TrEMBL record:
Keyword set, alphabetical order: ATP-binding, Kinase, Lipid biosynthesis, Lipid metabolism, Magnesium, Metal-binding, Nucleotide-binding, Phospholipid biosynthesis, Phospholipid metabolism, Transferase
Species the sequence originates in: Haloprofundus marisrubri
Segment forming the signal sequence: none
PROSITE patterns cross-referenced by the UniProt entry: DAGK
Biased composition (Basic and acidic residues): 16-37
Lineage, top ranks: Archaea, Methanobacteriati, Methanobacteriota, Stenosarchaea group, Halobacteria
Domain of life: Archaea
Protein name as catalogued: DAGKc domain-containing protein
Amino acid sequence: MPSPENLRSDTSTTRNRTDGRRVRADGGHPTHSDRMLILHPESGNGDHDHEVRRLATEHGFSIRETDDAGDAIRFAADAVDDGAEFVAAAGGDGTLNEVIEGIRRADGFEQVTFGVVPCGTGNNFAENVGIESIEHAFEVFESGGRRRIDLGVVHWGTDEPSWARDPSEEDPSAGGTRAFLNSCVGGFTAEASDETSSDLKERLGVAAYVLSTLRVMTDFDGIRMHIDTHGREQQWSGDAVSVLIGNGRRFPVEGRTQADMEDGRLDVTIVEERPTIDLVGQAAASRLFGRDTEHINRLKTPALQLDVLSGETLRFSLDGEMIETASLTVETLEGVVELPVGDAYEPDPDDD
Ligand SMILES: Nc1ncnc2c1ncn2[C@@H]1O[C@H](COP(=O)(O)OP(=O)(O)OP(=O)(O)O)[C@@H](O)[C@H]1O
């Protein structure tokens, strides 16, 4: 069994560059110090460990394995500090989120290409960027096109910079800053994961959570809130049951869940009240999220501020990571994440 922190390259095959980083003397793949893969061994059904290790080793990656929440943030930040040029995340959306957050905290976007190896249950983000399987991910790393996509960032509750905090000692209730690749989903939706069947999740992504939530809530009037887009004319006040803020993902209009990840804007969907329709399955989702639905509001904006006016706090899920707050700002960092994409990636999903 290889140890978790293993597989450093043989330095005899390397020479030093003037900047101090190692490269292969034969000009082949960069050395292991240039390529780091962060592996969550238990994600999904937990049977990917061997295949990921084999392919990662063949493709010149060092491997670090996570033991617990927060590890991937620290490992990714370490990789940036150690001069990595490619940092890959092998896990579900939670691991992808932690790795991109670690790169953000280490200010590594100019230096690092971010790779996605789908090892979760739904793998929604990987699918959106055209990566179909573990094996396909490594092919795409070598020969796929590279794009620069946006990153969503949430700030809440504190002015203390996130890079000053140890991720293992973080208290999300104290506030902070956090990246998201896919979505920031607020309101009762964020609480409903346990009620959502995996079949529904596969088919509808985050919309499934909204459906489940609305199905279990019978007497809920929504929470009074105000959403402002900083002088960009769009604002909304009212009682909402859910707010869905998408970067990589949006909420289905005619079944499409991928957002434009390169437009520098967030796709915001506000679910105003509990609709009285029969909330089961795809047909209901189309009605619920369709363009004409009265209780759905949509905004597109590079940034927004959300304030809960009722004195309550709301729970938000950032790619599955939970925070709780009465006020937050959300912004997009346009085009900061460079990543290899598969042929199926659609830069502009609205351009049919
Ligand atoms: N070895 C580990 N054991 C338990 N939890 C871990 C470990 N490593 C990381 N984690 C935590 O598990 C969280 C969930 O990981 P991830 O989303 O990658 O897997 P998953 O939940 O199985 O996948 P999916 O969301 O697709 O179902 C991570 O965000 C991280 O906080």
